[in-house]
User: Which sequence fits this backbone?
């Protein structure tokens, strides 16, 4: 089975019903994407497929159509995506475990809605759980990232 | 003489020791030397050092033994060292080190001492200092109790200062100068002519000289890092780029992936199982019966999960109550029952006489079991080979892990290595170690291989050692518009002794202070005032949940106080301030009134606000919650929070911890509980254990005061007042008193 992740083509020998999450983590060693619930209730496993934010724990790899981007492909420590830079600037992360999914969700939101209101942020982000309670900084960071991207 | 004085005052000394390629600086315990695994192979006299700074030619390592579960412990420990050492901590390697008995945490047991934290008198201080002795005896290298900052504030700064001066002395001797002529900056000693020698270049020479111990700490007015706004967390870039490696992310070439299914009646064990279907599934290597249940070893975590679900298992049914109704009936039976009496640490005036005359106001309360549910499920990597056990896991209790693993694997303790990993949350969950026991048992079945055990979310939620459920009864009286009598009884299964017994195998005698922590120790002067703890039988095994006893007692104490104040016809804030006899706490209450523009509980039709106060871990915290009763339900609009930690070392992280604590407290109070049927929790995942999501998060304003005489940690104290402030606000807006958590049993939230 073939798939492309962060621009790199891979071939894996797995059953088609294996969720993309576990193909990424256990077969390809791409671990920025996290397992939190396995039932699309927390959003920690959020990745982009052709730019659309999806829960990789619910996407059977056999059903995958399109190129996958994970947090590692969004930006790197040396070249941060605007969302990641805003996350650093607002010191969002506490434990950080949900933040890959939060940032992937936020990046997809901003690609679609360049200047979201608080209500639009609430709607787009409420599927992403944060047990540490970083939500107020997530909201602030999304506004900052929106400004950066629009100025960009 | 000064040496003795220093010991008496601080109970520790900073020293140094040669290590391979350089020098280490750290704390010498004043008492008997304790083995230290970081300095194995050194001479006898040097083995007592707990190193915090290690300098070799390769670089500077800051050893930050308190675990980081998201609260920022790594960063603040590094900044405390760097402030005096004169380095940029971002240029150093941070390491949790290996757990050793020499890391002892005096601060965390001091919190459990039988004097309220606001009592700064001689007896209280003496008791607190004695309580650090058992911490050493019990080998508690423990992260918890908001103790990282109070425990490390002096020790870590002094270690940095001694290291700096000793490096200067090494440079002075090399060049024939005096130490006073030298300065330090950014990891270098600066010579009078402005030239520089790197610390790393001086490490070998520094190891050969006696450490310069008599170093005054810098005045806070000269600090460059501590107390400054916008201090960046040193792990932030990794956490914002998916490059932080949590325990669950570790990968080794030869690694096998495992999961378990254990009896949801924790500890009851396995009657039998049928692995016919599971054993044939793709990727399954072994199915192994273990003490707590059945483990599946496979070549991929998902395949292990699938096979575990396919197992047919018969569990042993325990004798303890198996439903929520039976559990709460058992708690009620113990409440007020003389046979279940555990302790009464507050008994002022004459409560019985006061309540014998006049109207008695009574109210009954209850709180549910709560899962910790950090987003990273429990996991551990274990490799057992050649009589040695290596463990990689996120834990708050590495020494207990080491000792238990040694026992299970049948090796000596010094043959076990525990590598503490960054943690995706804990909230107290990682004060338990069942998952590591299971991983060690499974690793014994695949000797020589790395084995990673991961719990499914469902396994995690149903094997969580939850926050204890409890019940409480308040009886009180009012007189002349004031609260006059307050009598609170709380019934709960033993928490602290059972937790410690599970970990250590030892019995903790005496009362379980956690039953009333957060209610008996509040800084109020009520003429007739009593708080009594009753110990219900052991049912579901329970453990510490962020803010421990205060998570429930804060709700009980403050909600009942609010009812009495209302009955007295007094203002909720003004009466709390009048009753408060502790100056820093009173200022916290006054400040939250000023911040919120307090003019009373009403905010107009359908709107109201509640105030609540709880002092926990020595930190007074007051919160005002404002709500609106809409047609769709209660909306939380705004929260005002004031805390006093004595001195704020990291304003940005304080704000983050307080914000997170408020959201944690509100979210669980709104809609979270573990209910039991057939001896197991009915909630299994985040769809039925949700807490707060972003759309529900109110505006939160925070102020930190610095009037308290001692420095305190802030990971937990913002949690306890949130639930009562919300309940009191709902009463103010709707007239409905809710005496049970979660509040969603009685109201809807928008």
Assistant:
């Amino acid at each position: 089975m073939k798939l492309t992740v962060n621009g790199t083509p891979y071939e894996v020998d797995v059953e088609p019903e294996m969720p993309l999450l576990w193909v990424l983590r256990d077969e390809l060693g791409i671990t920025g994407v996290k397992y939190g619930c396995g039932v699309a209730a927390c959003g920690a496993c959020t990745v982009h497929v052709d730019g659309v934010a999806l829960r990789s724990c619910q996407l059977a790899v056999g059903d995958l159509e399109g190129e996958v981007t994970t947090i590692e492909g969004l930006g790197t420590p040396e070249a941060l995506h605007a969302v990641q830079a805003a996350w650093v600037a607002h010191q969002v992360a506490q434990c950080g475990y949900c933040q890959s999914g939060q940032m992937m969700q936020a990046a997809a939101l901003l690609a679609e809605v360049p200047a979201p209101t608080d209500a639009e942020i609430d709607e787009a982000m409420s599927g992403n759980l944060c047990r540490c309670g970083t939500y107020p900084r997530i909201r602030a960071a999304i506004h900052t990232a929106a400004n950066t991207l629009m100025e960009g | 003489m000064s040496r003795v004085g220093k010991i008496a005052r601080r109970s520790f000394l900073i020293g140094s020791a040669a290590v391979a390629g350089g020098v280490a600086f750290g704390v010498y315990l004043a008492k008997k030397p304790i083995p230290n695994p970081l300095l194995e192979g050194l001479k006898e006299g040097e083995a007592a050092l707990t190193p915090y700074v290690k300098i070799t030619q390769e670089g500077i390592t800051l050893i930050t033994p308190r675990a980081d579960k998201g609260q920022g412990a790594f960063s603040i420990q590094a900044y405390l060292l760097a402030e005096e050492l004169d380095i940029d901590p971002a240029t150093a390697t941070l390491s949790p080190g290996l757990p050793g008995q020499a890391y002892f945490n005096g601060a965390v047991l001091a919190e459990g001492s039988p004097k309220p934290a606001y009592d700064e008198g001689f007896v209280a201080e003496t008791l607190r200092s004695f309580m650090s002795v058992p911490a050493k005896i019990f080998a508690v290298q423990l992260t918890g109790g908001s103790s990282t900052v109070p425990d490390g504030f002096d020790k870590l700064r002094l270690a940095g200062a001694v290291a700096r001066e000793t490096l200067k002395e090494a440079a002075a001797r090399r060049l024939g100068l005096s130490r006073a002529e030298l300065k330090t900056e950014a990891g270098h000693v600066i010579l009078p002519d402005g030239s520089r020698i790197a610390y790393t270049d001086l490490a070998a020479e520094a190891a050969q000289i006696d450490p310069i111990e008599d170093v005054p700490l810098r005045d806070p007015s000269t600090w460059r890092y501590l107390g400054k706004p916008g201090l960046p967390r040193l792990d932030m870039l990794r956490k914002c780029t998916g490059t932080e490696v949590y325990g669950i992310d570790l990968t080794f070439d030869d690694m096998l992936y495992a999961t378990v299914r254990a009896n949801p009646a924790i500890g009851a064990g396995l009657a039998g199982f049928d692995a016919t279907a599971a054993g044939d599934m793709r990727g399954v290597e072994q199915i192994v019966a273990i003490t707590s249940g059945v483990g599946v070893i496979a070549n991929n975590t998902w395949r292990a999960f699938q096979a575990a679900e396919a197992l047919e298992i018969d569990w042993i049914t325990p004798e303890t109550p198996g439903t929520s109704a039976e559990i709460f009936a058992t708690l009620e039976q113990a409440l007020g029952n003389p046979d279940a009496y555990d302790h009464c640490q507050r008994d002022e005036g004459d409560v019985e006489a006061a309540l014998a005359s006049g109207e008695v106001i009574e109210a009954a309360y209850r709180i549910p079991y709560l899962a910790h549910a950090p987003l990273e499920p429990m996991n551990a990597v274990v490799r057992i080979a050649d009589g040695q056990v290596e463990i990689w896991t996120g834990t708050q209790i590495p020494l207990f892990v080491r000792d238990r693993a040694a026992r299970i694997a049948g090796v000596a303790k010094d043959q076990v290595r525990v590598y503490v990993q960054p943690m995706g949350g804990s909230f107290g969950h990682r004060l338990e170690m069942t998952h590591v026991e299971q991983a060690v048992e499974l690793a014994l079945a695949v000797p020589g291989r790395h084995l990673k055990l991961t719990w499914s979310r469902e396994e995690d939620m149903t094997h969580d050692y939850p926050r204890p459920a409890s019940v409480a009864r308040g009886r009180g009286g009012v007189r002349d518009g004031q609260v006059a009598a307050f009598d609170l009884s709380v019934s709960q299964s033993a928490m602290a002794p059972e937790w410690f017994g599970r970990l250590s195998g030892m019995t903790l005698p005496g009362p379980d202070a956690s039953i009333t922590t957060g209610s008996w120790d509040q800084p109020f002067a009520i003429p007739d005032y009593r708080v009594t703890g009753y110990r219900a039988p052991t049912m579901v095994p329970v453990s510490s949940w962020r803010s421990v006893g205060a998570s429930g007692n804060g709700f009980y104490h403050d909600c009942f106080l609010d009812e009495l104040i209302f009955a007295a016809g007094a203002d909720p804030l003004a009466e709390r301030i009048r009753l408060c006899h502790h100056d820093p706490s009173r200022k916290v209450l006054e400040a939250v009134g000023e911040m919120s523009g307090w003019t009373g509980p009403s905010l107009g039709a359908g709107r109201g606000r509640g105030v609540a106060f709880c002092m926990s871990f020595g930190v007074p915290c007051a919160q005002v919650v404002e709500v609106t009763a809409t047609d769709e339900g209660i909306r939380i609009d705004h929260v005002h929070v004031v805390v006093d930690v004595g001195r704020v070392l990291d304003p940005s992280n304080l704000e983050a911890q307080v914000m997170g604590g408020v959201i944690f407290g509100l979210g669980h109070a709104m809609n979270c509980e573990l209910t039991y049927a057939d001896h197991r929790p009915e909630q299994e995942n985040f769809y039925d254990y949700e807490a707060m999501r972003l759309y529900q998060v109110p505006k939160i304003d925070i102020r930190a005061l610095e009037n308290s005489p001692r420095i305190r940690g802030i990971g937990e104290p913002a949690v306890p007042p949130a639930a009562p402030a919300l309940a009191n606000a709902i009463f103010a807006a709707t007239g409905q008193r809710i005496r049970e958590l979660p509040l969603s049993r009685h109201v809807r939230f928008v």
Summary: Chain B has three domains: 2-104+139-239, 247-314+378-454, 324-370+466-745. The first helix of chain B runs from residue 2 to 10. Residues 1-10, 29-48, 101-105, 122-139 of chain B have pLDDT under 50 and may be disordered. The radius of gyration of chain B is 27 Å.
